[in-house]
Amino acid sequence: MQAVPASLVILGGGVVAVEMAVAYTDLGSAVTVLVRGDRVLPRAEPFAAQEVADGLRELGVDLRLGRQATAVHRDADGVHLVLDDASEVHATELLVATGRKPRTVDLGLETVGLVPGASVVVDDALQVTAVADGWLFAVGDVTGRTATTHQGKYDARVAGDVIAARFRADPAAAGERAAVEARAGAERSAGPWSRYRASADAGAVPQVVVSRPEVAWVGLTEAEARRRGHDVRTVRYATGSVAGAFVAADGYVGTAQLVLDDVAGTVLGATFTGQDAAELVHAATIAVAAAVPIDRLWHAVPAYPTVSEVWLRLLEAAGC
């Protein structure tokens, strides 16, 4: 689109659909969002998805859940969609945000036995598993592991360390030789959470949705944790009740939730909604990635008056 349309229909209910709905509404478009499922943000906690849906409607977005287009055509008047309930929607422009897939069609993957158009499967060292001799690595969206810029950079750092340790020129100096061999040995024996393995991809990936309210989460949702067999307990607190929220914004509205492993006493996941929720998620990422016991987290005292005090309230709710 070369200009802000007077009206816009967005197909999809994921992160891109939600963020574009907010952005174009702010720019002045009349926005309709058609979601095939029964909620937006299907990978987020249900309470967060509901808050975002409510926020979209408060912005004036025509949010229609459980609806999908069965026919689309464009004419001089714009885009016309027929929905599965026989109703029609008209708009100036249409934005399709129904998901992404790796763009691997034109990379020549077939020359090394890989399938063009499919994800390039890698192990935690970011080595492509289907190519012999271990010379091919992949990072970023093409792997299908994550689809965020920050996690792609993380994978690239791990891959760089692995490559530097495995593939090396023979150093001339004895001191350099010892350092090179030490790195190679460390990589060969590397386990999870070493600098040579992208362990965070499996359960410590932070995600931020620039919506209103903003949403940020990391780790496992309650449903994911239960599917993986954890003994799960959740605690939740209204973020707007802490003193720092009154400093951050008038009428601050938001929610914080921790998903706890009740046996291990650690944080499996965390979700925050509200203004600048993204600024709360890094502390949760550290707690998840390091499996910090909640009894120890209780000693990480939040400064007063900040929104981070919600951590204290959550831990108190957890019994600390």
TrEMBL record:
Pfam families: Pyr_redox_2, Pyr_redox_dim. SUPFAM superfamilies: FAD/NAD(P)-binding domain, FAD/NAD-linked reductases, dimerisation (C-terminal) domain. Its EC number is 1.8.1.4. PANTHER family: DIHYDROLIPOYL DEHYDROGENASE, MITOCHONDRIAL (PTHR22912:SF151), DISULFIDE OXIDOREDUCTASE (PTHR22912). Residues 205-311 form the Pyridine nucleotide-disulphide oxidoreductase dimerisation domain. InterPro entries: Class-I_Pyr_Nuc-Dis_Oxidored, FAD/NAD-bd_sf, FAD/NAD-binding_dom, FAD/NAD-linked_Rdtase_dimer_sf, Pyr_nucl-diS_OxRdtase_dimer. One of its GO terms (molecular function) is dihydrolipoyl dehydrogenase (NADH) activity. It comes from mine drainage metagenome. The gene is lpd_7. Residues 3-151 form the FAD/NAD(P)-binding domain. GO terms for biological process: 2-oxoglutarate metabolic process. This is Dihydrolipoyl dehydrogenase. Keywords: FAD, Flavoprotein, NAD, Oxidoreductase.
